Amino acid sequence: MGRSKGKKVEEAPEWGDAFDRAPYTVSAYTHSTLGVCSPTYLQLPRGDLSPKRMEKKHIFVVTHSRTCSTALERVFMNRRDILEIFHEPFGDAFYFGPEKISPLHLQWGPTKIERSGRGHVTYNNVLQEMFDAAKQGDKRIFSKDISYHIVPPIHSQDAQPASLREHFKPTDAPNPTVLPTSIVEQFQFVFLIRNPSSSIPSLYRCFIPPLSDMTEDHELDPEELGYRELRILIDHLYPPESRSKPVPHAGETKGNAPSDGPLVIDADDFLVSPDAMVQLLCSRLSIPYSPSMLTWDKPEDHAFAHSLFAKFAGYHEDALHSTGMKPRSRAPEKSRQEYDEEWTSKYGDEAAKMLRSAVDQCQEDYEYLRQFKVQP
Question: Confidence class of residue 289 from pLDDT cuts 50, 70 and 90?
Fold first, then answer.
């Protein structure tokens, strides 16, 4: 698919009106530990990767792009006393490392991978870094990542990172991720979704000026949107034939989906009721809740966020310059025609047609995922 010729647009806040804005910026910050980890091959320990002293599973938030997931991360960054936070760690291996799966690097200049400092990172490095950090701090892992970083997208369905091959045993139950089943079983999963009519145009903005000047990405890949991979993972972890009871469509009844089903959060619900949704998540994840989790206004909070988010420049600007979450009004529903007219006005005819095709491609999967969403 060729690059869409859209109009140049100014950056507009995606969910900035849900944030309290930071009155200052942080000019100095530390690098992500993953960004500077040793290039030496790290041997993944067998067997007891997660310390048995930990009563609760580690936490893995899996999402497609542009679901306000960095806002959710900033909430749980306030529990660094009990959580070891990782921001899209498998993206390092997926995009930059010797096992890279995405073809996005073909769009980049010749020095971007070298400048990233992550050209050596393998999937094995990522796992070792995560579990070593959790062990040393006696904490639970809280990792957020994009679904197709671990469930191979259509363009690379047979991808299997070489650094992990020896850890897969013939007796292991199969799973759709690139990770060993023994690793997958150590996590409690949270799934974050958003209506593709909102998320995909938001993602497209990162591929056109002015944001593309920061991201250095110029062509939206319709095979890296993430809804398909979320559905595959949910159906693996919660097979339809083993679900205890039917899950009603969230729009038809109030209340939570069954507690033994997938924990799915719709971004719009999170933005409208952040405090209630965080309380629900804390309850389900066995994390003590505090209202202070929705505020991050200290210099050390911003420095830590920059240390994690800076590696994907241009994608997290609202979250980086925020100081907390506050409720916002639910956006009015729009018709298909209204969306098409809006995209044409903002981005031009060709880009609007591309967006319509991408949204339609993801809509069925979104509606499927949406039936599991929990409500505060």
Answer: very high
